[in-house]
């Protein structure tokens, strides 16, 4: 007999929320502590409650469900997308889709000894993806993973084969059974352990140390459906400033103004495109946050000078505030009662990290986030374009668990939705005409800062909460404060925040990089499944330290890494103190030229990337995708973890071994073209691709349209008047063109220009249709230069029925023609 309150809510036909609440007496109907936050506000009216006489209460709230209750035996909730049923006696439940296919079968569901837990049956051949940031294979089946944010130095699985947790915790899994996707998200930021068929091959056991048993179940049926709903719930990435899509250079540390300026000069002199330089901890005055030390005189002038050369400067900000009685930030923090309390709740907790003894802002308290935002804003107004949040698990040196002790005390605020988030949510609706937006906007938001206190009687007060129950939120809360700070400093500019730590929904606040990897081939290879799973988990804007952080890179490794990372969403080279210099010119002219070419290609691909970022912002679809995303029914594609898709059109097969002269590439069903011009291949098979030094193998899906531009040395809001549309034959495709000013929050107010671009190839008749442009941003495109790839002969071309000139280049195998832009639909045909 399940002795608990169970509430099942249909948030949408394909999204159910299942919670076990505090057990209450037989007939008592207590108001649900989180009703208004979770369900009431967004799903009103037709709430229906079914009370179960024996296990207190099970209620169904939601207009999408119809319920049947046999109080003694079973509860069932049916929506148009599926059916959930729970047996009271055992607490077991199942979720089936509308065709009767089982999505999840839970065999045990309980809070035992204070630990909420459940066991799901793993079906034969079921694969499990997502889980945020973790090492090891793409498919997590057979592994144990934990959610407990930690600072792990050198985390490649070849170094730590049984490593279970990293800096970011996202307790979300995408399950794939015979091509059909479902999802589960356990919204609980305390420590969780997921045994995914490791101990018992057919069992997926999920257990938390404490906190609520609060699950969201997603019915799919495609990976895109699941992730759209998951990100509809936890939020989507706001658009970053355009420059943040460019190449970024970092080192621990550029230790003086002279060194930083020298690096900037080298990039321009060597004509290697670069947009941002990162300042690691040596810029500070004795590791005091928000300061510049003596080696960085006149920072405002320095930052302005760099900005004039097109460099945006990003400074690191760690949470530890040096416990120095004369330090103004500390003094103000103490006056604000801003710091996490030691166990007992009276004195501020003091622990050691980079600055020595430090105090830690209680970011879970909205009042403290505001204070931090103000401190950061004054710092940023010196001219910093971005903020890099590090050590925000938080990492400590001198405590046994290397983070805040479990019983440190936070004042957890209840304002779960920060104003900026609401604003971007609103824009999500306006930027997109997509079917999901309206419903998503009404979703209650999960994984928000500050809903874990037992605050039913004082909804606005902050509540004393032990660290152990909110640990995984600390990094996200710091990133939220940081975003707030950036918006205070420049209210109409898109913030760029980079974070090491986070929880589900971190994409609303920051980009994520995967922390301290190593300059090894193993780590290069591991970065692919790591970034793919982060992407599946909602974090579209992610990347790994290019070249590897720890140890010494080699020229070949740097070249191969740069060639891979040019296709990843976040693109930053970073290296550890004492390691060999890792700037693109650090290994001689040959490697420099390979890196320059890879980085330059990134800048050429910018329009394609911008469209993908806009799509991720609108729908939550990842920028970097595993093959299974578009081929969930193909077991070979599902198993593939050393290749990835950038958007739907490009398949990247990086070179992951030293000295490789070729590699095997799996091409899913359909026709594929060698991106570099080497011919067409039938998919559904492995092929051998040559591993030339100049680039990694990349393939393009037949029928793809890839927009590119003339590469620049750095990005400004200025755009090229000519956009190239590369079109590959023998297929069809469709995507949304997106343009905006790249800088301001205007996109949230509809200042964008979008249009649907569709291509179809019916034998000899090829048609490219640019739908009518919409949105309040005046497109900067004057000319579409169409580049028909894999062409064997000249063609005749018509635009809206009028014949135009074209040129055939037999050596390159391309047909070229120019179409003057117009906001009206453009129908381009060629024979
Ligand atoms: C941490 C970060 C790393 C940074 C270093 C010094 O190890 O992960 O990126 O360079 O601290 O701040």
What global shape is seen? globular
Q: Helices and strands: which structural class?
A: alpha+beta
Which ligands occur here?
Answer: alpha-D-glucopyranose
Termini Cα gap: 71 Å
Q: Quick one: how many beta strands?
A: 52
Main sheet properties: 9 strands, antiparallel
- Would you identify the regions where 5 or more consecutive residues have pLDDT less than 50? 23-63, 416-459
Overall mean pLDDT stands at 89
Describe the strand arrangement of the main beta sheet, using strand numbers: 5-6-7-8-9-10-17-16-12
Percent of residues in beta strands? 25-35%
Backbone CA Rg: 27 Å
DSSP summary: helix tally: 15
Can you give the helix content as a percent range? 10-25%
Describe the structure.
The chain has 831 residues and is an alpha+beta fold. It contains 15 helices and 52 strands. A nine-stranded antiparallel sheet has the order 5-6-7-8-9-10-17-16-12, with no helix packed on it. Strands 31-30-28-25-21-20-19-33-32 form a nine-stranded parallel sheet. Strands 3-4-1-2-18-15-14-11 form an eight-stranded mixed sheet. Strand 38 and strand 39 form a beta hairpin. Helix 6 packs across helix 10 (474-489) and helix 12 (555-565) packs parallel to helix 13. The longest helix has 17 residues, at 588-604. The N and C termini lie far apart (71 Å). Alpha-D-glucopyranose binds at residues 252, 280-281, 316, 390, 500, 515-516, 549, 574. Residues 252, 280-281, 316, 390, 500, 515-516, 549, 574 line the site of alpha-D-glucopyranose.
């Amino acid at each position: 007999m399940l002795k608990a309150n169970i509430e099942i809510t249909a948030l949408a036909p394909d999204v159910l929320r299942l919670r076990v609440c505090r057990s209450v007496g037989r007939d008592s109907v207590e108001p649900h502590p989180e009703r208004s936050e979770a369900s009431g506000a967004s799903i009103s009216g037709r709430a229906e409650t079914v009370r179960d006489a024996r296990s207190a209460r099970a209620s169904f709230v939601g207009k999408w469900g119809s319920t049947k209750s046999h109080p003694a035996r079973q509860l069932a909730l049916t929506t148009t997308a599926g059916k959930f049923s729970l047996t009271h006696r055992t607490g077991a439940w199942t979720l089936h889709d509308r065709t009767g296919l089982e999505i999840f079968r839970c065999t045990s569901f309980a809070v035992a000894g204070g630990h909420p837990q459940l066991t799901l049956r793993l079906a034969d051949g079921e694969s499990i993806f997502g889980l945020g940031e973790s090492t090891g294979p793409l498919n997590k089946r057979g592994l144990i993973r934990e959610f407990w944010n930690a600072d792990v130095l050198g985390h490649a699985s070849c170094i730590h084969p049984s490593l279970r947790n990293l800096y970011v915790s996202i307790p979300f899994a995408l399950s794939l059974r015979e091509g059909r996707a479902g999802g589960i998200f356990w919204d609980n930021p305390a420590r969780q352990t997921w045994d995914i068929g490791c101990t018992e091959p057919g069992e997926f056991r999920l257990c938390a140390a404490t906190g609520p048993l609060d699950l969201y179940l997603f019915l799919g049926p495609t990976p895109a459906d699941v992730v759209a709903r998951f990100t509809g719930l936890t939020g989507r990435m706001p658009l970053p400033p355009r420059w943040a899509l460019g190449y970024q250079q970092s080192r621990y540390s550029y230790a003086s103004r002279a060194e930083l300026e020298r690096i900037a000069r080298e990039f321009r002199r060597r004509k290697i495109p670069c947009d941002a330089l990162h300042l690691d901890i040596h810029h500070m005055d004795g590791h005091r946050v928000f300061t510049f030390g003596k080696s960085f005189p006149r920072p405002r002038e320095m930052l302005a000078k760099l900005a004039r050369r097109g460099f945006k400067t990003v400074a690191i900000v760690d949470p530890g505030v040096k416990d120095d009685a004369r330090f103004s930030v500390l003094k103000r923090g103490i006056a604000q009662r801003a710091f996490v309390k030691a166990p007992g709740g009276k004195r501020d907790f003091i622990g050691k990290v980079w600055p020595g003894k430090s105090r830690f802002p209680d970011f879970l308290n909205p009042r403290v986030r505001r204070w931090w935002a103000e401190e950061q804003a004054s710092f940023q107004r010196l001219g910093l374009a971005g903020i890099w949040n590090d050590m925000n698990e938080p990492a400590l040196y001198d405590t046994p668990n290397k983070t805040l002790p479990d019983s440190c005390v936070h004042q957890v605020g209840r304002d779960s939705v920060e104003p900026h988030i609401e604003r971007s949510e609103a824009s999500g609706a306006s930027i997109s005409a997509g079917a999901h937006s309206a419903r998503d906007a009404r979703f209650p938001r999960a994984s928000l800062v500050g809903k874990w206190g037992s605050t039913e009687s004082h909804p606005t007060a902050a509540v004393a909460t032990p660290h152990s129950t909110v640990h995984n939120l600390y990094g996200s809360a710091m990133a939220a404060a940081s975003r707030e700070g950036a918006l205070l400093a420049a209210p109409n500019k898109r913030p760029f925040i980079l974070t090491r730590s986070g929880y589900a929904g971190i994409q609303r606040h920051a980009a994520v990089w995967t922390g301290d990897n190593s300059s090894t081939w193993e780590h290069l290879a591991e970065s692919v499944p790591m970034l793919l799973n982060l992407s599946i988990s909602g974090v579209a804007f992610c990347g790994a330290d290019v070249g590897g952080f720890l140890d010494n890179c080699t020229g070949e490794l740097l070249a191969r890494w740069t060639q891979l990372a040019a296709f990843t969403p976040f693109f930053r080279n970073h290296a550890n103190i004492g390691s060999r210099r890792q700037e693109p010119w650090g290994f001689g002219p040959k490697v420099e030229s390979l890196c320059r070419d890879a980085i330059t290609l990134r800048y050429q691909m910018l329009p394609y990337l911008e469209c993908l970022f806009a799509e991720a912002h609108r729908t939550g679809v990842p920028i970097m995708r595993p093959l299974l995303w578009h081929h969930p029914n193909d077991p070979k594609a599902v198993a593939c973890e050393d290749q990835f898709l950038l958007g739907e059109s490009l398949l990247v097969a990086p070179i992951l071994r030293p000295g490789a002269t070729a590699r095997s590439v799996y091409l899913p069903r359909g026709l594929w073209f060698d991106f570099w011009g080497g011919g067409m291949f039938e998919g559904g098979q492995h092929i051998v691709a040559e591993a030339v030094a100049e680039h990694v193998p990349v393939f393009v899906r037949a029928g793809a349209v890839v927009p590119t531009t003339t590469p620049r040395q750095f990005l400004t809001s200025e755009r090229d008047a000519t956009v190239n549309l590369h079109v590959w034959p023998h297929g069809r495709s469709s995507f949304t063109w997106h343009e905006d000013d790249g800088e301001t929050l205007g996109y949230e107010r509809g200042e964008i220009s979008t249009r649907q671009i569709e291509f179809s190839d019916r034998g000899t008749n090829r048609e490219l249709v640019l739908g009518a442009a919409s949105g309040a941003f005046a497109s900067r495109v004057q000319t579409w230069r169409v580049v028909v790839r894999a062409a064997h002969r000249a063609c005749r071309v018509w635009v809206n029925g009028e014949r135009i000139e074209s040129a055939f280049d037999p050596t390159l195998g391309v047909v070229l023609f120019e179409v003057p832009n117009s906001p009206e639909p453009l129908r381009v045909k060629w024979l």
